[in-house]
């Protein structure tokens, strides 16, 4: 149930002007019953002026009458049609002043490692503007030479869950559009939890291809025959020849 405006002041008015039970008032204002009793005894909310819920369009007189006649009746907040469909103000995420200088680094990180994210998604994640994102994408930002990409989660500009949700949304959009994605792109679109819990065999990076057959175990007999002796490899002289050289020098 929604909480009325100025709950404590509303409780003061109901205690002073009605015979509704303390429990009914406590349930309506989301206060403790003993706190409401304290208001009646003058121990709580001393000096607080009562807030009339009827005059302020929060309760009807009929609802109060029902509650006075029936101690089990629960007061219901008056329905206000004007409040329907109201949403929180939408806009860029607020970023503390101390972290605003880190936003370009986080934008560059997102642009580099998650190019599938739309500018609007990046704007919501780190609290920036589309012109700034565009400037970093096109490398026309005034400080682009000094910007290093840094994970926005590490900078505290957004949560990992928020980043994962944005990435998943981008993945769903690409799937709907039927756009072909490479293995690397698919890996980027996985959330952190999915990536860690995946049991699939991971693709070997290009930089170390060809080393997949490398083993530290004992070589097969055929391989032992092909091994080159260290002495023959470096053409080390025999120990006897060394002794002869020492005698000549002596």
From TrEMBL:
Q: Where is the composition biased (Basic and acidic residues)?
A: 174-190
Q: Which InterPro entries match?
A: TrcR
What's the protein name?
DUF1013 domain-containing protein
Query: Pfam families this protein is in?
Result: TrcR
List where Acidic residues composition bias occurs.
219-228, 238-250
**Disordered as annotated region, ranges:** 75-99, 174-250
